[in-house]
Write a structure and sequence with these properties.
single chain; 138 residues; mainly beta; four-stranded mixed β-sheet; 1 helix; 11 strands; 7% helix
């Protein structure tokens, strides 16, 4: 930044203390929607509220200030959304992904095709506090 000195017509370079952005608090929120993972052998219901995402987030463009403000209120964060950074990870429908977690075979709801005297089953992957589902791009 340049400022004209009142002492004369010369320009003085001012050393202004610039504000360097420092992360003083990092808050994250993960929302997962149940989905069906289609493999070559089976369809697996992936069901849970939380998961691990080793995928790096990307900035939301264009910014959605209402969503950012709501997030800051939910996280009890002080400040203005314009002074904060927001990244988001979205996995689109049809994306090729890897899913790691604990799966189990369970009885499915009635109505599925089965062999004689065989109850319909499905594979379901769930998460809990000890075993989180991990989702990454393949």
């Amino acid at each position: 930044m340049h400022r004209v000195s009142r002492d004369g017509p010369h320009v003085q370079e001012l050393a202004l203390a610039s504000q360097i952005a420092e992360i003083d608090q990092e808050v994250s929120e993960i929302k997962m929607t149940s989905f069906v993972l289609v493999t070559k052998d089976d369809e697996i219901l992936v069901d849970g509220d939380v998961c691990e995402l080793p995928i790096r987030g990307a900035p939301v463009i264009p910014r959605k200030l209402d969503r950012e403000r709501d997030f800051m209120v939910r996280g009890a964060l002080v400040g203005l959304p314009k002074d904060a950074g927001f990244d988001e990870v979205v996995i689109p429908d049809g994306a090729k992904i890897m899913v790691h977690g604990v799966a189990r075979k369970e009885l499915a709801e009635a109505g599925g095709e089965t062999h004689f005297r065989e109850a319909p089953t499905r594979i379901r992957m769930t998460s809990d506090g000890a075993h989180l589902i991990t989702i990454d791009f393949a």
